[in-house]
Amino acid sequence: MSNASKTRVFDCNETPDMTIQSYLERIFRYTRAGPSVYVVAYVYIDRFCQLLPEFRITGRNVHRLLITTIMVASKYVEDMNYRNSYFARVGGITTEEMNTLELEFLFLMNFKMHVNVSVFESYCSHLEREVSIGGGYHIEKTLRCAEEIKSQQRGYNQIARITL
């Protein structure tokens, strides 16, 4: 099966009547995912499109792609998470569909979900530039995982100095 046919799992039979902004507001309202989850989801969408250049984001697939990337990012970034069935209800799909979307997404991404600190910060800067045109908002730059990586690296460096 080709990647193009695998990405069709994200297509709806018809275009949802909810705007992307309303859909994102709904996800935010019911999941309370932090801003860092949305930045990581943005990285995932960008990577997905780079890995699968034949894939085009359309009105028929954007909602499912968003709920999938936000759920996967939430699982990667947050300490506590809702079940897939909850994300499915929030996203307006069945639990079975949510499970299928997650699994297909992970395989299409080759399970490469890690976002390092510099990539995260560059996406934050890009988003800040984009959003500042419309009102001067600031994107949260504190990703718990990123901070943990930095502190671990400092710890490893100290250990390396001590053992040398």
Describe this structure in words.
This protein is mostly helical. The protein contains eight helices and no strands. It has helices at 3-7, 20-31, 35-51, 62-77, 84-91, 95-108, 117-132, 144-163. The longest helix has 20 residues, at 144-163. It comes from Centaurea solstitialis. Keywords: Cell cycle, Cell division, Cyclin.
Structural class, by secondary structure, is mainly alpha
Helix content: 55-70%
**Mean pLDDT level:** 83
| Number of discrete helical segments | 8
Largest sheet: none
Low-confidence stretches: 136-144
Distance between the termini: 52 Å
Rg over C-alpha atoms, rounded to the nearest angstrom:
17 Å
The strand count comes to 0
Order of helices and strands: HHHHHHHH
Portion of residues in beta strands equals: under 5%
Shape: globular
